[in-house]
TrEMBL record:
NCBIfam families: PPOX_FMN_DR2398
InterPro entries hit by this protein: Pyridox_Oxase_FMN-dep, Pyridox_Oxase_N, Split_barrel_FMN-bd
The protein's name: Phosphohydrolase
Keywords: Hydrolase
Species the sequence originates in: Caulobacter mirabilis
Annotated transmembrane regions: none
Domain Pyridoxamine 5'-phosphate oxidase N-terminal: 33-150
GO molecular function, one term: hydrolase activity
Gene3D superfamilies registered for this protein in UniProt: Electron Transport, Fmn-binding Protein, Chain A
Amino acid sequence: MNALSLDDLDRIYGQPKGPAKAKALDHVDRYGRRFIALSPFCVISAAGPDGSLDVSPRGGEPGFVHVEDDRTIMLPDRPGNNRLDVLRNIVGGDGQIGFMFMIPGFDDIYRVNGRAVLTADETLLERFVEFGRKPRSILRVTVQEAFLHCPKALMRARLWEADAQVERTTLPSLSEMILDQLGLGKPQVDEAQVLERYREQL
């Protein structure tokens, strides 16, 4: 197999034209602000000092990511599994981060790239109480690029369409799969108890 070069990409795909090339802004405009305010879910990515990359989901009430001004957004970090892959990459790397915001029912996506710093400033944490809890930390992101992404990927995936939904019983529960991967046998509690524990930790 021969790996493609940059010249190969230009030959195969051609150059972006018109709005596809010009749409990237260096700030969050009024449409981006509204999109983020409606979004209960985003995916973030960051590279560590050794170039290793991590991608991680984040969720909350719509607008859980705050637009402080047109060049600053803030993401509160909630309790998880304490792997902290993205946070370790941010703190240990150069702080570069990418966001992909989604709104249920929308095929459009809003993307933001920038440079983040992590803070646990108590005054700032108090501003981000959700589910009755303060976050553990806040990612403060200086926006470098922001743009709307075309809907083709989500249209192909039919992500929001009812007849495209997969029954959860198609796969074992998360607990069953992880314990089996680790050779630790069957879960000691049923899935309803596991989910209830997750809800208590939101």
